[in-house]
Amino acid sequence: MSSPNSSDQSADQRPGRGISRRALFGAVGVGVVAAGAGAAAGRLTAPDTASSHADVVEFRGAHQAGIVTPAQDRMHFVAFDVTTDSRDELVALLQKWTEMAARMTAGQEAAADGALGAGQYKPPSDTGEALDLDACQLTLTIGFGPSLFVKDGKDRFGIADKRPAVLVDLPKFTGDALDPARSGGDICIQACANDPQVAVHAVRNLARVGFGTVAVRWSQLGFGRTSSTSTSQTTPRNLFGFKDGTRNIKAEEDTAVDRFVWVDPADDQAWMGGGSYLVARRIRMLIESWDRTVLHEQERVIGRAKGTGAPLGQRDEFDELDLDSRGPHGPLVDRDAHVRLASKEELGGIEILRRGYNFTDGSDGFGHLDAGLFFIAYCRDPQRQFVPMQQTLAHGDAMNEYIKHVGSAVFAVPPGVEGDAFWGSTLFGGSLALRDEAEK
Ligand SMILES: C=CC1=C(C)c2cc3[nH]c(cc4nc(cc5[nH]c(cc1n2)c(C)c5CCC(=O)O)C(CCC(=O)O)=C4C)c(C)c3C=C
Ligand SMILES: [Fe+2]
After folding, report:
1. How far apart, in whole angstroms, are the C-alpha atoms of residue 408 and residue 410?
2. Atom of ligand 1 nearest to the CA of 373
3. What does the record note about the cofactor (predicted)?
4. What is the pLDDT of residue 225?
5. What is the distance between the alpha carbons of residues 98 and 206, in angstroms, rounded to a whole number?
6. Distance CA 178, CA 183 (A)
């Protein structure tokens, strides 16, 4: 597996990277800035390292960052509709976005001297709310939805024959209560960072320059990662209070990552080689019902102990999940327990990489919290991995009494950008250098 894009150098120290936003406005000790930024932003869960606000995650690489790179604490996810019919305009935006993303993930303004440099009589080309903040491990990950390729039977941008066969809308699952206004989209961008303001700043600036070419269809803020994607991370908890991500695929598991996450160029469409597929599900958690449920039932539903995260009948979090273990009253892990039905042992060996976030979006007007899990999965083939897994859960999961799927989307996530490539250049052709040449 190639390098997972990770770097612990701060943006200020990186050679040839230009000046970071924070360095521009005066250097303060990193620890001070990190503590201040986290406190001001009301961070709810502790990051794994003290320096996680200053850290830069390398933008360029064989794979996009934000997939197997360590999951950050906050997320802003956005889905766009493309509003132009012009392929050239779309490609120009993807090129512009790539340059902005490379800058912002390095802790720089969206454009050089963007917030103040254009003077008093022009709108700034950086909105400014991240001026004093570090990179905060910002990652920006782009994906293309099925409707970008073909919509209402129309080949919108001359790429219909490049649509991978597995990139189709997900089937309706039993119990789905999907809101079309929170589903689908032509393009998605997943922004993750250890400070919410950094993630929101990135999405806002990308949406701002997209005006006239794309329009925001829906977006979701998330806090408190609900998975670990690296063995260096502790397992966080979801809003049911359970450790979530214990048995997730970890970046260090090269064989599993190659088998279940990265698309092989020979799979179908060569332009997707080194990419992945992203499945997003907005899952409401019926918190009030859950909170009236006794601990024994909560643990039976999940199949793990709430305190330690250990499989029922075991002692420690990472003890083996033994689905054959039995007690005096039957299987220790119930037949409809979530972890049993979602396990590779029950699903013919299938696995996915989970990278979701908790959300709370106020209340629903009926006295309930609008809270839940913004579930994100990365997989090599959504039809052979996510779909059968979700079909099994939708039919039999004991957890269904306490959750409702209300949003859904699937996107093809192209490989990473290397050299003068741009987001989507393997799909559309061309390079940043060619564009610069043409503009001369
Ligand atoms: C289709 C895939 C999955 C959906 C949707 C899903 C929703 C969901 N999960 C939890 C809480 C937990 N899930 C856990 C494990 C787990 N979940 C999935 C898949 C989906 N979950 C998998 C593949 C696994 C691993 C199964 C295994 O091999 O053991 C756990 C246990 C801890 C862990 O291993 O991560 C919890 C807790 C919620 C609350 C939820 C929807 C709101
Ligand atoms: Fe789960």
Report:
1. 7
2. 42
3. Binds 1 heme b (iron(II)-protoporphyrin IX) group non-covalently per subunit.
4. 87
5. 10
6. 7
318-329 pLDDT, tens per residue? 999 999 999 998
DSSP state of 25: T
Say how many C-beta atoms besides its own lie within 10 A of residue 27's C-beta.
11
The secondary structure of 65-132 as a DSSP string is TTSSSPP-SEEEEEEEEE----HHHHHHHHHHHHHHHHHHHTT--SSTTTTTTT-TTS--SS--TTTT
Supply φ then ψ for residue 263, to 5 degrees. -75, 135
Q: Which of ligand 1's atoms lies nearest the C-alpha of 345?
A: 28
CB atoms inside a 10 Å sphere around CB 256: 16
Q: Looking at ligand 1, which residue's alpha carbon is closest to its atom 18?
A: 342
Answer whether 387 contacts ligand 1 (Cβ < 6 A). no
**Cα 354 to ligand 2 centroid, rounded to whole Å:** 9
Determine the pLDDT at residue 195. 97
Residue closest to 44 by CA, chosen among 6, 72, 10, 7: 72
Does the C-beta of 7 come closer than 6 Å to ligand 1?
A: no
- Residue from 249, 339, 401 whose mutation best tests the ligand 1 pocket (most atoms within 8 A of CB): 339
Please name the residue whose Cα sits nearest to atom 35 of ligand 1.
245
Distances (CA, A) of 297 to 220, 255, 368, 396: 30, 36, 21, 16
Ligand 2 centroid to 311 CA: how many Å?
Answer: 14
**Which amino acid is residue 377, in one-letter code?**
A
Where are the domains positioned within the chain? 6-439
- Asked whether 338 lines ligand 1 (CB < 6 A), one says yes
Q: Which of 244, 260, 404 to mutate to test the pocket of ligand 1 (most atoms within 8 A of CB)?
A: 244
Q: Is the predicted ipTM greater than 0.85, yes or no?
A: yes
Asked if residues 59 and 107 have their Cβ atoms less than 8 Å apart, the reply is no
The confidence score (pLDDT) of residue 21 equals 80
339, 321 contact by CB (below 8 A): yes
Q: Give residue 431's pLDDT.
A: 85
Task: Assess whether the C-beta atom of 144 lies below 6 angstroms from ligand 1.
Answer: no
Cα angle: 80, vertex 82, 86; to 5 degrees: 155
* Residues of the chain predicted below pLDDT 50: 1-17, 26-51
Q: Give the chain's length.
A: 440
- Reference 331, options 346, 348, 316, 318; nearest CA is 346
Among protein residues, the one with the nearest Cα to ligand 1's atom 3 is 390
Ligand 1 site, residue 339, Cβ cutoff 6 A:
yes
> Which pLDDT score, from 0 to 100, does residue 43 have?
30
Q: State pLDDT tens for residues 331-348.
A: 999 999 999 999 999 999
